[in-house]
Backbone:
């Protein structure tokens, strides 16, 4: 049970890390789009 | 008329005579603890907005125990399994009965206990947690996050170390997967997330878990400065961040971020959608310039929800409700979770420090723990003590806001994945 919990925790941490990177990338992408097409500076 | 009938007038006192020694000490201890919370709340050591109503609720619910009439006693007994006494009565209060769930019993209790309507219709379904999140959304300036998204999200992920590491530790200490995930969320240092996760995964333990979480969150303001001083030498605390060109973020960009990030996260984690919607609708209202809505959420909703949250948490600390054999384990795990998250955040700060060529102040790492805005303020305060002219608050706030988002992500993962584990 403990080994399963450790494995699951590591998988969940990795998954959360990937999603966080995705959100950060999304923010960067938004910037490019909004600044190029939205007339922002 | 007998002497016992006179004692019956003062049921708060006479109820002690019908309790076990453990319960008597528990009630007295909780009354004293309530007083301590009020005292330290008034002094500003603990968060007064939460601790003063909580302390009063805690003291008075444990003082105001009486013998409920046989009809009410039967309803309580049916829900809790607690045996009624020989005269058909049972000990309880006229404030709240958190374990009553059957619809007809609940309808009866709603007419008896004065806080039951707020508990049933706003607390146990997470509405109060969502109101608090809307308020946090209105207060957040996501510009700090948008200026340095990768750095902020990296620090916030490091500061989730406690959330992830506490999960297997809790399992090793004998908790089930669902219970372990609920208490591990304390590492996210986000009260509404803990409330939400425990309601979804371990409803039978959500009272002690939420109380433990809010008690400890009040302590971060007092405890984290020592952790920073212990792990980061004064020389490194005084590092001045390199001046970078100011990135100006328009309100339109922040609104677009709220829309896209909120929608994508809801798409990924529908089970955390109520909290995500609440957070991002707060951000959107602020950035869209809807001043009437902003004022309503910031003043009425946030303060109203915080007041009732504190009061209900206090009232839920009735000795017979909170005393569960697992409470001691939860107390230990809660402090481990917060401690590991603080350490994780500082490790993240050190990683940035080394990778940036020793130019980043590692103290900003602690702000990745999403106790908005306490941890960012703690970070700035500790830096100011050794270098009064060094400002790290903008970067710290970026990490702090990212912490809310990573906590929401982990809540979504826990709520979605943990129930699938056998």
Residues:
């Amino acid at each position: 049970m403990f080994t399963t919990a450790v494995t699951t925790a590591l998988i969940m941490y990795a998954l959360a890390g990937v999603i966080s990177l995705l959100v950060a990338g999304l923010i960067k992408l938004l910037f490019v789009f909004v600044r190029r097409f939205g007339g922002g500076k | 008329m007998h002497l016992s009938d006179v004692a019956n007038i003062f049921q708060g006192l006479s109820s002690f005579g019908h309790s076990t020694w453990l319960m008597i000490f528990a009630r007295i201890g909780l009354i004293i603890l309530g007083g301590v919370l009020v005292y330290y709340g008034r002094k500003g050591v603990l968060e007064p907005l939460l601790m003063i109503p909580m302390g009063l609720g805690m003291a008075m619910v444990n003082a105001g125990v009486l013998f409920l009439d046989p009809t009410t006693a039967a309803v309580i007994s049916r829900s809790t399994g607690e045996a009624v006494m020989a005269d058909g009565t049972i000990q309880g209060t006229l404030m709240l009965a958190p374990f009553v769930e059957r619809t007809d019993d609940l309808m009866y209790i709603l007419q008896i206990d004065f806080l039951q309507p707020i508990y049933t219709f706003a607390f146990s379904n997470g509405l109060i947690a969502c109101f608090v999140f809307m308020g946090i959304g209105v207060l957040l300036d996501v510009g700090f996050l948008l200026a340095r998204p990768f750095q902020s999200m990296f620090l916030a992920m490091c500061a989730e170390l406690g959330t992830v590491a506490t999960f297997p530790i809790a399992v090793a200490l004998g908790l089930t997967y669902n219970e372990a995930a609920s208490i591990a969320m304390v590492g996210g240092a986000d009260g509404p997330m803990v409330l939400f996760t425990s309601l979804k995964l371990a409803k039978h333990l959500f009272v002690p878990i939420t109380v433990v979480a809010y008690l400890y969150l009040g302590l971060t303001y007092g405890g984290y400065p020592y952790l920073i001083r212990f792990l980061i030498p004064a020389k490194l605390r005084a590092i001045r961040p390199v001046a970078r060109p100011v990135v100006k973020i328009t309100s339109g960009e922040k609104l677009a971020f709220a829309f896209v990030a909120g929608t994508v996260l809801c798409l990924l984690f529908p089970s955390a959608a109520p909290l995500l919607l609440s957070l991002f609708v707060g951000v959107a209202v602020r950035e869209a310039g809807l001043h009437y809505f902003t004022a309503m959420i910031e003043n009425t909703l946030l303060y109203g929800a915080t007041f009732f949250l504190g009061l209900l948490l206090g009232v839920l600390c009735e000795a017979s409700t909170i005393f569960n054999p697992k409470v001691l384990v939860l107390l230990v795990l809660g402090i481990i979770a917060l401690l590991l998250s603080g350490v994780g955040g500082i490790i993240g700060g050190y990683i940035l420090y080394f990778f940036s060529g020793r130019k980043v102040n590692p103290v900003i790492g602690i702000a990745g723990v999403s106790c908005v805005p306490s941890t960012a303020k703690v970070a700035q305060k500790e830096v100011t003590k050794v270098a009064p002219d060094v400002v790290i608050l903008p970067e710290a706030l970026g990490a702090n806001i990212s912490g809310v988002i990573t906590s929401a992500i982990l809540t979504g993962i826990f709520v979605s994945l943990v129930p699938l584990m056998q």
